[in-house]
Design goal:
Helices cover about 30% and strands about 25% of the residues. By secondary structure, the protein is α/β, with parallel strands linked by helices. It is globular, with a radius of gyration of 15 Å. Keywords: Methyltransferase, Transferase. This is 16S rRNA (Guanine(966)-N(2))-methyltransferase RsmD.
Length: about 190
């Protein structure tokens, strides 16, 4: 696995030996091509949930993100993400948080970040994560003050999974299937 493009393009990543399903280079390139078209990469605050090796968040850092937070609860994933951050020299830009995503997003919803709302959020949960658990995380992200106006939420799921149940405050604006993977895009809206 490698960083696809940007300042660190071509650099290899450590991948956990078990318990994760890394996003392929092809899917990451497609996601970042769309994000570049939407002009949401340079100078952004990024949250990578269920981060695994951190490939999505690290790709965002390589392409100009201002700050990236990687969150995962699996020890092997957190260790791999920390090794990648160190090897790529990104400690000033990327932080790694060990713990359940649900606890992290609940804390965000209760007290939105003082340092600025998020511009880009990746969710690449295990395919067996329940729809209810995913809905809870998305509802936390839709809480006032968590997402900046014009933010983008990217959810990666199995192509066989139903579309996420988008909470009030998040509206889908597209999806694309790549083999066994479907990528969904949503943006914050003012509740009616």
């Amino acid at each position: 696995m490698r960083i696809v493009a940007g300042a660190l393009g071509g650099r290899t990543l450590v991948v956990p030996t078990q318990g994760t399903r890394p996003t392929s280079d092809r899917v990451r390139e497609a996601i970042f091509s769309r994000l570049a078209h939407l002009d949401v990469l340079d100078g952004t605050r990024v949250l990578d949930l269920y981060a695994g090796s951190g490939a999505l968040g690290l790709e965002a850092a390589s392409r100009g993100a201002q700050h990236v937070t990687l969150v995962d609860s699996a020890r092997v994933a957190v260790d791999a993400a920390r090794k990648n951050v160190a090897a790529l020299g990104l400690a000033a830009v990327v932080s790694v948080t060990a713990g359940p995503v649900e606890r992290y997003t609940a804390a965000l919803a209760a007290a939105p970040p003082l340092s600025g709302a998020l511009d880009l959020v990746f969710l690449d949960p295990p395919y067996d994560l329940s729809d209810d658990d995913l809905s809870g995380v998305l509802a936390d992200l839709a809480a006032p003050g968590v997402l900046a106006p014009g933010a983008v939420v990217v959810v990666e799921r199995s192509a066989r999974s139903a579309e996420p149940a988008w909470p009030a405050g998040l509206e889908p604006f597209g999806d694309k299937t790549y083999g066994e993977t479907r990528v969904h895009y949503a943006e914050p809206i003012e509740p009616a």
